[in-house]
Amino acid sequence: MAGNLIGGAAIGQAFRMLSESITEAGKTSVCFDSNFRRLNSTLLSIKPVLEDIERLNKALEGRESETELFNKRLEEGEKLVRKSAKIKRYNVCKRWYYSKKLADLEKSTMNFFEVHGLMQSCRDRKKILVALKEEGEKLDEIYAMLKDMKLEKKRRITK
Predict the structure, then answer these.
(1) pLDDT tens digits for 18-71?
(2) Number of domains in the chain
(3) Is 118 within a domain?
(4) Residue 20 domain-assigned?
(5) CA-to-CA distance for 103 and 156, rounded, in angstroms?
(6) What is the pLDDT of residues 67-100, one digit of tens each?
(7) CA separation for the pair 18, 109 (Å, rounded)
(8) Is the dihedral of CA 36, 70, 123, 9 positive or negative?
(9) Does some domain include residue 152?
(10) Nearest in space to 73 (alpha carbons), one of 34, 42, 98
(11) Which domain holds residue 24?
(12) Whole-prediction pTM
């Protein structure tokens, strides 16, 4: 299944549920076959990013509040897929309506992950730069102390 590689966290669970509902709906409902294929393709393209986010959040000790937005979006998608799978072939109005909703879900999911992923990436890069700057300042202080110790040692030797 598409979500098996993601860890046991909430976002991995939501991803797995959405992926499974798409697979199940694709087997039972031929009305939205192309929609389900496109949505599944989108999910497969964002799967590695979600895996990295999940892994890095664990390494950074938490930050699960950021993944709540992703989780919520995936849960909404799962509900929509399950509803659309129940639409009968002869119900043209509902088929059109849910086809439009599924297409919008696919587009909005990709846009959502692009925008939020970019924002998280920018923020994380800034945090890294700040941490590097602080570490550089600490190294400068250590270097200054070592230099002072070396000068102090030279003075003692020359006396």
Answers:
(1) 888 888 887 777 677 778 888 888 888 877 877 777 777 777 765 666 667 777
(2) 1
(3) yes
(4) yes
(5) 79
(6) 677 778 888 888 888 888 888 878 788 888 888 8
(7) 12
(8) negative
(9) no
(10) 42
(11) 8-130
(12) 0.59
